[in-house]
Amino acid sequence: MLKSVLLAGGGTAGHVEPALAVADALRATDPRLRLTLLGTKAGLESRLVPARGYELATVEKVPLPRRPSVQLLTVPGRLAGAVSTAAHVLAETRADVVVGFGGYVSVPAYLAARRRGIPIVVHEANPLPGVANRLGARFTPYVATSYPGTPLRGARLTGIPLRPEILTLDRSAGAQRTARGRYGLDYQRPTLLVVGGSQGARSVNTAMTSAARALARSGIQVLHAAGPRNIGEVTAVLPTGLPAPYVLVPYLDHIPSAYAAADMVLCRSGAMTCAELAAIGLPAAYVPLPIGNGEQRRNALPTVEAGGGLIVDDADLTADWIMSNVVPVLTSPERLAKMRAAMAGTGRPQATQMIVSMIHEAEASRRRSGGRHAAH
Questions:
Q1: Which of 158, 216, 322, 366 is deepest in the core (most CB within 10 A)?
Q2: Is residue 352 within 8 Å of 21, Cβ to Cβ?
Q3: What is the pTM of this model?
Q4: pLDDT in tens, 272-323
Q5: Which of 278, 271, 297, 296 has its CA nearest to residue 350?
């Protein structure tokens, strides 16, 4: 019987939120289950995990340098220390299963679990897996992916686990009226939600402040989370006396209510954002982050190809692009309805329960093997 689970996911919301969604689902099935999240002291998890009522254990963050350097020489020793810490956490919590979501903290968790014969479940949120999950997937047959064609052997397509608050979000007219009232928005106007990630996005902010007056003249109101670091400079250049509400905030502390208020979103295309919008059927204009290996573009493409979203390169996002592409959607109830229907068809609301089932499978396999789990 499953008694204790260690969930390893830290650093970014794309790692922490899926871990918390799975923890919530496990807790709902058995409130007596011990649930421990493994993260770092400095990551987003240091705030989010205790706030959700879970125990947080920490290991040292051991990033791999992208280029050969003196720092590379310190990695083996630091990684060995992190693995030792993770092994201590596994022993103290008597974990039956380790569930990893990628990122820095998953590597020591996978290595410590393999050493102790504890079964591993891997969840990969992105179309292209990172180093951590490529390693973890070699140790287990229990691998969940979020996109078709993710190159991990034996993977099962589940989607990204989402919290119940997103999966059950009320987007009725009454709920929309209430949500708009919360932000001081007009109930009847078409509403654009603008988010550039947890820290904001300068290119998104610049395009929006340039388009603000034309948007307002088109009858469109805006709820814009500019990012805590950028709020001052955005406030300084945002036009005043607009003929429609333009609500500017540093960040959104309750994203479900912002989703409920919106007709469309202009945003980055992180895996978590794409999954949430698909699940609730909220059309979006995606501006992929122009760094990395192009994973944000890959995140958005299934929705865009299905007809539920638009996509624009960061360098091409301008006020003119917003007026030519976003405004025609927001001012057409028929286009919005078609995009909502297409968007909803790309969602995978059963992801969380599928991963919970995999965790129980992994634990059952351990019992069948006499308490130790053979590597895959």
A1: 322
A2: yes
A3: 0.88
A4: 999 999 999 999 999 999 887 788 999 999 999 999 999 999 999 999 999 9
A5: 278
